[in-house]
Amino acid sequence: MEAYAALKCALWRIVQPLAVGLMLLPATPAQAFFSEIASYLAAYQYGIDYTSSFDSVDASYQTDKAQATPTDHCVSEPNNPNKQICTATMRGGGSSGYGIVITQQFKRQGLFYFRPDIGFGLRYLEGARSGHDLDRDRSVGLPLRQLKFNLGAAVIKPYIQFGITPADTWPDLLISLGPSAQMAFGNVTVNGKRENVAVVTSSNSVITGFVALEIVFWRFGRGALSVFTENEVAGGGRGSTFYPGSVDGMDDFHASFNHSVSGGFYGFGIKVLSPWP
User: Fold this and answer.
1) What is the pLDDT of residues 234-249, one digit of tens each?
2) What is the end-to-end Cα distance of the chain in Å, rounded?
């Protein structure tokens, strides 16, 4: 609770001077704009959640056809019968435990609820093609002997949230849908050749790049107790360029990214929002 109080005080120290300063300025369109921003930031609530998260990366590359094509993760290149595109799925990270939640205050609109919003995320991704999978690749003549990555990523998720919020009964049911985009910076190593990379990926759908479901069982003032699950995809299809150049007959490296949040309560994470600002 001490860490929570410290975070709340730090954020208030940022927002309060801005709000007070804007009140002292002559009324202008710019002042009104920044006043709206200050009001928006001041409406954030804080809480804690208990979740499990999982990140995966689907990397693909083009190479010559091997003597025996592993059909479970390689397909023929449509425009070149002598080439094939192979996919390597890797774990990019995961966590389980308590976290801090910062979200906008909920304001009931009636039985039906609708609100546009935008979400952000930061994460660190680290992973590699496992030894078993690499052994299988070599057994069928594929040239991939090493694939690993270390990336810091920032995510932006504009979305709409809608649902049903009964006045006298429970629970509230809220669904969030929208696209997602990710910017990642770091390094990727293929067969011992390391390259610094910048990878920008976005969902190929404006509706289901980011999907979330939240069930609110109890609201107390501004506070709430709920369970939720989320899934986020940046990339779709082969995604975006993942590694530049060619290595040992492999080229055209691409990747897409998946991030999911769940928990131990029937597959849902648990979230408690504080009733205090």
Assistant:
1) 987 788 999 998 999 9
2) 15
pLDDT at 67: 62
| Amino acid at residue number 75 | V
Mind listing the pLDDT tens digit for each residue in 111-129? 999 999 988 889 999 999 8
Residue 12: which H helix or E strand, with range?
A: helix 2-24
Nearest to 269 by CA among 230, 227, 232: 227
Phi and psi at residue 264, in whole multiples of 5°?
-90, 0
* Nearest-angstrom CA–CA distance, 277 and 273: 10
Class of residue 67 by CB neighbours under 10 A (exposed 0-12, middle 13-18, buried 19+): exposed
Query: What parts of the chain have a pLDDT lower than 70?
Result: 1-28, 30-31, 33-34, 38, 40-41, 67-71, 277
Q: Residue 251 corresponds to which tokens in the numbers above?
A: 């080229």
